[in-house]
Structures are given as structure tokens and as C-alpha cells.
């Protein structure tokens, strides 16, 4: 479980996942956010430079409120960084 600070910020560290073996499923991280008085937001962070990223997911990620969050990985020395803002709506 992860908690935000007083400003609503959070961070965590993980490795960048690979695709499921033997598939063309893009690399992804499942992300679920909940808060008292708000709905639950479930999304999948996918990566812009993933070699198996497809046009369907790219187009879907461009829609507001999409399940997919297409992210660009930035950072020096092979250490990537992704920024993901999450907006929760009422229940």
C-alpha cells in the first residue's frame, strides 16, 4: 500500500517490466488508486518506446479518462522516470 503526502504526491520504485513471454502484449504496470469519498481509478501504465506498442493502445491512451496511460521514460544512466498524474472522480 502506498500513501500520498499532504500535497497528494507519491512515488515508488520498480523495475521496468518485460512483455508476457510469447505474446505481443506491451510492457505495462497496473495501477489502482482509491481515496475515501472518491471512486477507484484503475489504469495501466504503458511505455511510449515499447517495441511492441500498437496503434490501438496508442489511440486509446490519447482519450481522456482512458484505462491506458502512455508514458515517456526519461532519465540519465539507464534509470528511467515516469510521471503519472491521477484524477479521482466522486463515487
Instruction: Indicate how many domains the architecture comprises.
Output: 1
What is the residue-mean pLDDT, rounded to a whole number? 85
Largest β-sheet summary: 3 strands, mixed
Strand order of the largest sheet: 1-2-3
Determine Rg (CA atoms, Å): 14 Å
Provide an overview of this structure.
With 91 residues, this protein is mainly beta. It has one domain. It is built from one helix and three strands. The chain has one helix at 55-61, and strands spanning 28-33, 41-47, 68-71. The protein has a three-stranded mixed beta sheet with strand order 1-2-3. The radius of gyration is 14 Å and the shape is globular.
Would you kindly provide a brief summary of this structure?
The chain is mostly beta strands and 91 residues long. It is 8% helix and 19% strand.
Amino acid at each position: 500500500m502506498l500513501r500520498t503526502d499532504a500535497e497528494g504526491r507519491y512515488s515508488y520504485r520498480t523495475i521496468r517490466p518485460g512483455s508476457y513471454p510469447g505474446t505481443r502484449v506491451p510492457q505495462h504496470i497496473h495501477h489502482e488508486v482509491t481515496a475515501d469519498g472518491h471512486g477507484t481509478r484503475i489504469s495501466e501504465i504503458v511505455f511510449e518506446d515499447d517495441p511492441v506498442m500498437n496503434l490501438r493502445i496508442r489511440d486509446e491512451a490519447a482519450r481522456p479518462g482512458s484505462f491506458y496511460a502512455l508514458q515517456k521514460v526519461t532519465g540519465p544512466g539507464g534509470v528511467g522516470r515516469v510521471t503519472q498524474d491521477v484524477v479521482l472522480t466522486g463515487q
